[in-house]
Amino acid sequence: MAAILEVDHLSKRYGSGTSALNDVSLDINEGEIVALLGPNGAGKTTLISIICGLVVPTSGTVRVGGHDIRTDWRAARKMIGLVPQEIALEPFEKVIDCVRYTRGLYGLPPDEAYVEQLLRSLALWDKREARTRELSGGMKRRVLIAKALSHRPKVLFLDEPTAGVDVTLRREMWTVVRELRAQGVTIILTTHYLEEAEDMADRIGVINHGQLLLMRPKSELMGEFGKKRLVLDLY
Ligand code: ATP
Question: Where is the ABC transporter domain (predicted)?
């Protein structure tokens, strides 16, 4: 399988002196779901933010589809979609316009057929004329996913998609993620929940204190460490 994402020796030291990421290397294959598990402050968001071009690394390289984000950012950017941790939506904007607008930001021409397909696949079509402030928390998260997929990226990053949501919503999000993978999207998500990583991912990476402690197929990890040991090591 080809690696769609290659991260090599990535480090980040913030101005405050915090070493948020320390020599992280990983490859993600096309079509995989990878969960990055780690406690608060582990460095998960920093890693995703660097890959998505929001934070400049101190050292190391990132390639998306073979495109180096430092030298070939335009090409790399088209391949990436990010669903941020915070729900930031324009409250008075209509659902359908959120997606159209985001496509526009990528300089893409309108594609109403794709927008409809996207909203239908996320069960948002019936709500397309609703203002985002009228939506439930779960629907708002799905709008964020629709926005992130508006330019048909190959790799989707979900930064703690289920932080602070109840069990029903969490399960709904898992279903959405599995459906996206079935459509061929490679998915990298961060989470605090072992259960979530275990349920959804093909591979699980464990990050703590800015280091990637391990990255292994889920089945291998669960067999070898057992849940209890993994949780104890993490927290
Ligand atoms: P959480 O699960 O709480 O979101 P995380 O694993 O995503 O945590 P990061 O947000 O990447 O962790 O933070 C890693 C470290 O870097 C933390 O010590 C954090 O305080 C620090 N940090 C993050 N952003 C900045 C910043 N802009 N300036 C200074 N330090 C930062």
Answer: 5-234
Three-state SS for the chain is CCEEEEEEEEEEECCCCCEEEEEEEEEEECCCEEEEECCCCCCHHHHHHHHCCCCCCCEEEEEECCEECCCCHHHHHHCEEEECCCCCCCCCCEHHHHHHHHHHHCCCCCCHHHHHHHHHHCCCHHHCCCEHHHCCHHHHHHHHHHHHCCCCCCEEEEECCCCCCCHHHHHHHHHHHHHHHHCCCEEEEEECCHHHHHHHCCEEEEEECCEEEEEEEHHHHHHHHHHHHHHHHHC
Q: Is 54 in the pocket of ligand 1 (CB under 6 A)?
A: no
The predicted-structure confidence for 107-158, as pLDDT tens digits, reads as follows 899 999 999 999 998 899 999 999 999 998 888 989 999 999 999 999 999 9
So what's the ipTM on this one? 0.97
Whether 20 lines ligand 1, by a CB cut-off of 6 Å, is: yes
